[in-house]
Structures are given as structure tokens and as C-alpha cells.
Amino acid sequence: MSSSGKKRKPLVAERRYSTANPKATPKPKPKKKAATKAKRTKTTQKRKAAKQGNIVTRTIGGLLRFILRITWFIFSRTAVILGLAVAGGVTYYAVQLPPIEDLVDGRTRGSVTLLDRNGDVFAWRGDQFGGMVTADSVSPNLKNAVIATEDKRFYGHIGVSPRGVASAVRINLRAGRGPLSGNGGSTLTQQTAKLLCMGRPHILAEQTEAEYEAECRRTTKWRKITEATYALAMELKYSKDDILTVYLNRAFLGAGARGFEAASQRYFGKSATQVTPAEAAVLAGLLKAPTRYAPTNNLQRSHDRGRVVIKLMEDQGYLTAAEADYARANPAQLSEAAQARAGGYFADWVMSSAPSFLTSDTTEDVIIQSTLDQGMQTDAEEALKHIFDTKVREGSEAQAAIVVMSADGAVRAMVGGRATKVSGAFNRATQANRQTGSSFKPFVFATALELGYTYADTIFDGPLTINIPGSGDYSPRNYTGQFYGDVTLTEALKRSMNTAAVRLSEAVGRDLVRKVANDFGIKSDLAAGPALALGVSESTLVEMTGAYAGILNGGRSVTPYGLVELRLQGDSDPMFGQEGGMGERVISQAAAEQLIYMMNQVVEGGSGARAKLDDRDVAGKTGTTQAARDAWFIGFSADYVTGVWMGYDNNTPLKGVTGGGLPADIWRETMTRIHKDVPVSPLPMTLPVIAPVAAPVAPEPQKKADPIGDLLRGIFSGGN
Q1: Average confidence (pLDDT) over 212-236
Q2: Residue 199 near residue 95, CB atoms below 8 Å
Q3: Average pLDDT over residues 703-707
Q4: Would you list the DSSP string of 653-674?
Q5: Is there a contact between 223 and 230 (Cβ–Cβ < 8 Å)?
Q6: Does residue 634 contact residue 440 with C-beta atoms inside 8 Å?
Q7: Is 70 exceeded by the pLDDT of residue 3?
Q8: Which of the four pLDDT bands, split at 50, 70 and 90, describes residue 660?
Q9: Maximum distance among all Cα pairs of the chain, rounded to whole angstroms
Q10: Element holding 605 (H helix, E strand)
């Protein structure tokens, strides 16, 4: 086979095409990316169409976007500025915060601790600070109770707690209050900041303590921001235990107690390092409302609040179920000093007897040793209550007062009214100036005895008229409406005869009577007229009782006193001491002893018979003023002088009461109680000398005639 010489084309199979369109070229499948792009293009076209087609929508949308951008700009910049301001404030406060030791005692005034005659505490006044305790030294029971009650997340937050604020807002809204009214959600650190008043000191010249504390407790929004900033600064500067230490020492806990150490001492008579769970619960419960929940105000309310705290401690794991049950079954009990509260009328009187800068206005801590006998104080209070409960009609508003003192004027007990557990109340024993009535008469008779009269001398008790220039005739009458003629001085005082007393006063001279009364300690203005002898002048119970003490001690004047010495806490030397006691002689001892006998007869069978004691001699005198507006009985044993006054504060006349009635009953009840363990001693009085009656001489027996015997005796005796 021959070849043409040309190269052949390779054999290639023919392409096959669809029978429907053999000439058509098959299209490749579109890629996914191209489809997505086409979709976006379509969306963009729609948006453009929308923008182009609705100018209102386009305008509103643009405005919203502008507002959002502006808002975000302002918010972000404000947040930055606020953060910088807070940081600056925190730094500012943190730099200024002093050492912890300088913050624990924030009082603006000091305290006064009053001790009785035995050196035992019976009252506190002012702001009591018991000394520094720390979060480590305080009882774990107390530490746990405070945290469980006030801030259970204390050791977990940074000084503020948004969660706590949210919870407080929820509670307030549920209670129908505003979101920031009521519960504030403050952390314990924020409460401490408030106690520190955010570092602003109290300047006495600018604000009172009450005004300062009110300002520190204000709850405005700006105040809350400042408080939070200060709290953050404290967290930055101090440890958690340091902050808790400040809180434990500065919190006000009622009854003048500042800090838990002072409160524990005041209410329970023990250190805050030793309190039980039940006591800790009561103390922590005070934080909610110190005055309302103070156990000295209402012990049952305090216990109820304590049970709430015990439940919180149990729920948070600080107490087991058994410990919680025991604490509930054995609630905290007040100490004896706490039960006495602020010392009542006696403490008020003692506080007023010393300079105010060392008592009510002191900036130091002061210790006062006093004359009070707490046993006698209780006796007097119980005696008064017993008589009013058993012998006075229910609902009576009559008042009474009692003063008990030694012969040297040392006051052992004082009751200034029927409500005995008080502080700062009107003291009827020291502040009520009332007419003394016949209780003044012993000073008339004392004047006469000093001038040479004796208890056996006589005075005429009969009609008497004295012309008083400018006032007319004055004619005294006896309470009985009768006259008794010539009577001894003893009988005149025993029966409290008015005309005899006035006649005797006129005989010895009113000026001398007034001088003797003044010298015995009655400093009130005494009447100038003849009614002076009948006690128309006014005096106080403590003044009158002191004057009677002068009679008991033999005729020397007495100034009643309750303060023995005053010293600053920590000092051994007193700043000043006793300013009362016995003074100059007023009447002779012989005159005093005769007068005591005469006053003894008043009790033995006269107007004061209801005051007689079963086991010892006593002496005294009744007193009833015009229309029975005042009723008195003042008297003494060999050991103690007691005065009793009874009446109405508004001078309403007493019904059926004289000095020899209910006042004598109160006096007898008081003296019986205070003498229960006192040995019997005789009164220092002169008894009347009774001439001895000669014993009858027995007649000699008649001899029978015996002539023979006579003859024999004569012979043997040598007679004729």
C-alpha cells in the first residue's frame, strides 16, 4: 500500500449532542459564590429602593441612629468621669483615714459611773464607753450575731453590695414604700462610715450632739453616694476585722451605752468578751432600734428581738439547733445595776450636787462614790408600793416621797415619786417646796428648850388672838376644835396643839425660832407672822429630814449629802470630796435629848401613834397643812432618820389623810424593813425623873402584957 507522504490526523470520536438541539452548547452549573453575591445585590437594590421610595421612614431611622450614638457617647463618657470621680473620692478619703485606734471612741461627751456606799455600780450617766474591744477579742457569739443580723456577706463584698441594695428595694416596694424608704441595703462597712459621719468631726461650738447625729444619719441620694465612696475607701485602707472593730466600739446601743463593751457591762454586768449566745442576740438586736429594744425599757420586747437574731444565727450556721434551742429557753437576764436603770431620783440628785462640767456636761469619764445603800433603796420603794397597793384607793393620783439618811446627813435612800424606775423625772423629795404644817413645831420647842424651858414646864392652851398690823386679828385653833388649858410642853407637842405652839413661839420670839430653824438647815424663806409656828412656810422633804437629823445627833446642824468623792477614771486622787455632813451646834445636847423624849411621846401615844415600831423606841412628828394639801411624817430611830411626804402635784386636798395616817404608815413600813437586821439601840433622850415612892413601914407588933417575965428580966439584967 502506497502512501501519499502526508501525516494523517489522529482519530477522534465525534461528539454526541442532544437530539432535541444537536447544535446547542451545554451551560455549566453556576457557582455558589456567585449566587450569594447575586442575592446581596438584590437586597441592596431593595434597600436602595426603600430609601428612595419612603422619605418618612428614612428620616425617622436616621434620627434614631443619631440619638443612639449621642446617648452612647454621653453614657460612656459619664461612666468614665464618674468612675474617675469615685476613684478620686476613694483615694481622697483613704489618704485621710487615721489609724484604727483613733476611731473606736467617737463620743463627744464623757460618762459618769455612780457607786454605792459599798463601791458597787448602781447607775451610769452620759455616754458610757467600756473600753476598746476588737473583732478578735470580742466573744465569737457576739461577732457572729452582729454579722448574721447586719451583713451576712460582710467578708465577701468590697464595701457596697448591689445585691443587698436590690433586696432592700424589693422589700420596700412590697411594703408599699418608696424604693429608698425603709430598708437601705447598707453594708456593715457603710454603717460604719455613717457612724464616722464620713470623717466629719463634731464641733460643739457649731452643733449640739443631737443635731450632729441627725445630720450624720440623713439619707439623701448624695449622702448615699458619699457614704458608699467612704465605705470603699475604708475597704481600701483597713482590713475587714479593722472595720468590724470600729463598728463594735462606736455603735449606740441604748441607755447611753456606746459600743458593745459598754452595753454588755450596762445590761449584763460582764465584758463583751464573755457574753453567751442569748446575751449576744439581745445586744445585736439593739442595732435595729436601740431605745425601743433596750432591755431596761422592755425586757420582753428585747427577748423577742433576741429570738429573731438567734434564728438568723441558726440559719447561717453560727449555732447548732441544740445551741439555738438552749438560747431560746434561757434568755438573757439583766444585772442588778441594769435593773436599777439609771439610778432613779437619788442619781439625779447626786448629779446635780456636783459641777455640770464634771457630770451632765462632762467630756471626761468620771467616777462618783456615793452614800446610797441599795438595800435600803429597795426597802423604801417596796414600802411605798405596799401602802399604795393595800391602803390607797385604786386610780388615785396622789404622790409620795421618802428620804432615808444617817444622823450625819448621809442619804441612804431616796424615792421622789410613785414611779421609781425613772431618770430625769420631777423629784418630789428635792424639788417640791411644800408647806410643812405641824412638822415644823419641833423647832419652836427646840428654841424654848435652848432658852431654859424644860419638857415638864407648862404652857396655856386656850383661845388666842393676835393683831397683825395690816392684816387684822389672827386666832389659831386646834385641829380637834377643843382647848386643853394648862399643859406641859411635852403634852402640847404630843397632841400637836396649835394655840400652845403659837403662844410658845410668841413667848420665845419668832426671830429666834426662825434662826434655830435656819441653823438646823431649813433654808427656805420662813414666814414673818405668828403662823410661822404652824408651818405655813415651805420646804423640801430632804431639807426637813436633814433638820430632824440635827435633832437626833445632839443638836448640831446637818447638810444632807450623797456624794462622797469624785474622781476621773484612771486617777487615784479625787478631784473633790464630801461637801455635806454635820456642822455647827444649834442647841445644846441637853436640849436635844429633852426634845427627843418629847417627840418619842408623839409616837408612844400622840398624833403619830401609827408610826410606832414593835422592837425599838422611835421619835417623830406629824404634819398636816391647811385643807390637807400636804401630809408629813418625819422621825428617827437611834440609827436612821426618815421623812415621808404625801400630796397631789396640783395641790388638790387629800381626802381623809393626815400626817398621822398614811404618811405614818409609809414611815413605819419603811423603818421596819430597813431595821430588820439592825441591832436595837436606845434613843439618846432624857427620860423624866420620877421621884421614888418610900416603901411603907410595917407597924411594930403589939406586945402582950407579961409582968412576971418583966420582973425576971429585970432581976437578971440588973434593973431596979
Answers
A1: 84
A2: no
A3: 45
A4: PPSS--TTTHHHHHHHHHHHHH
A5: no
A6: no
A7: no
A8: very high
A9: 247
A10: helix 589-605
* 708: confidence class by pLDDT, cuts 50, 70, 90: very low
Note whether 641 and 406 are within 8 A (CB): yes
Residue type, 102: D
Please report the pLDDT score of residue 181 as a whole number: 57
Which phi and psi angles does 474 have, rounded to 5°? -120, 120
- Of 326, 338, 332, nearest to 281 by C-alpha is 332
* C-alpha cell read off for 607: 398624833
Locate cell 420662813: which residue?
526
Per the document, the length of the chain is: 720
Angle among Cα 578, 581, 584 to the nearest 5 degrees reads 130
Closest C-alpha among 570, 257, 302 to residue 265? 257
Task: Give the residue carrying C-alpha cell 439609771.
Answer: 342
Q: Taking the alpha carbons of 392, 394, 398, 403 in that order, is the dihedral positive or negative?
A: positive
Rounded (to 5) percent helix, strand, coil in the chain = 45, 15, 40
Cα–Cα nearest to 310, from 322, 300, 299, 295:
322
- How many CB atoms are located within 10 Å of the residue 559 CB? 18
Give the distance from CA 602 to its chain's centroid. Answer: 40
Q: What's the DSSP call for residue 370?
A: E
Q: Taking the model in full, what pTM does it have?
A: 0.74
Q: Order the strands of the 640-647 sheet from edge to edge.
A: 411-415, 399-406, 640-647, 630-636, 619-624
pLDDT in tens, 527-582: 999 999 999 999 999 999 999 999 999 999 999 999 999 999 889 899 988 888 99
Q: Looking up cell 436601740, which residue turns up?
A: 290
